[in-house]
Protein: Fused response regulator/phosphatase
Organism: Paracoccus onchidii
Amino acid sequence: MTPAPNRPPRALRPLPSRRALLVDNPGPDRTQIAQHLRAAGYVVAEADSAAQALDLSRSHDPEIIFSAWDLPDQHGPEFCRAFRASARKVYGYFVLLTSDQDEQDIRDSLDAGADDFLDRPISDRELLARISAGERILRTEGELRASNAQLQSALDKLKETQSAMDRDLQEARKLQQGLVRERSGQFGAMQISLLLRPAGHIGGDLVGFFPIGEDRVGFYALDVSGHGVTAALLTAQLSVHLSGASDQNVALRAAQSGSDAVPPAALAHFFNNMMLEEMSTDTYFTMIYAELNHVTGEVRMVQAGHPHPMLQMPDGHVQRIGKGGMPVGVLENPIFDEIEFRLEPGTRLLIASDGITEACPPGGRLLGEDGLEAILRTNAFLGGHAFLESMAWSVSEYCRGDRPDDMSAVLIEYSAGTTLPFRT
């Protein structure tokens, strides 16, 4: 409904702590604007020139500004531009008083930063409308500023929390790397080398070896499903059961009592029962565990869902070993693949995690076992950690540095020229 022409303008609700700046020649218009601003709750500062107004704006920090178009020392749009360029704590709603300005003048004023215009002669109703529009903008700007302050505070706290988590994860990485106490070992003519490289701070891969009596050594490669803390905690627990320096080593318990060590398949079933009976989690893991007789070259191995071991012959030919088997911790009666074979002088055995075989560039294809075979053949002249580092570099280059999974590997090399004991 259109208000009656003779109805007096509705007074604005006073708002404390608002500040206004009025820049105009002394006269009726300036008095009229000042009265309405004070009635609306503003503390009003008045100036006769742009220079005086800029000085006042530094101390008064106004939130709404009414400026004449023609000032003694500067045009209103030029003063507006200078005002916008000054350092300010809050937004200033800028209204230019106009009379007979053309469209180009208005466009230039908007480019200079003006928010609104008020035509002379000034109507009380139009003046109150401009003050109300300014209030709405200032309220919204204040709410946004408060929200931004809260958001910034939350972000600062999040950064502090993230920094603390990063420090903890860095320490956890050191501890996890310490689970692999030895990265290489020499057993007669056999050399064992290990690679463990998490994709993030911590990971779910584990590799290692431990001696079993005088002529045998056990070695293993585990890959826990998932990433992060959950996988790392399970990895730490498994490392205790496979520690070579503790009577907690499941494989060595029988050997320490004078009996033979736990066979590889029996160890896999032990871990499977442990996962299903003692752990309330959906996590599972893949595993290779084997006993190597470093005198005869005999290997007894169990494969539980882990990628196929690669056996490289002296001539460079690569043979994949095993049928796969089921992961540990999924079914009550799993079928694991039990394998026996013999290493010959000049051969080497590589057991790699799926973080290597499943490496993939963005939008590309998996490296796969064929790619791993190619790496083995290309780096046939390298051995030990030099080979493992070259393999890790090749994988990272293949996936262009975007490696989402952990990399781990066990490399066993049988020195050429060694004669095995005669077998009938």
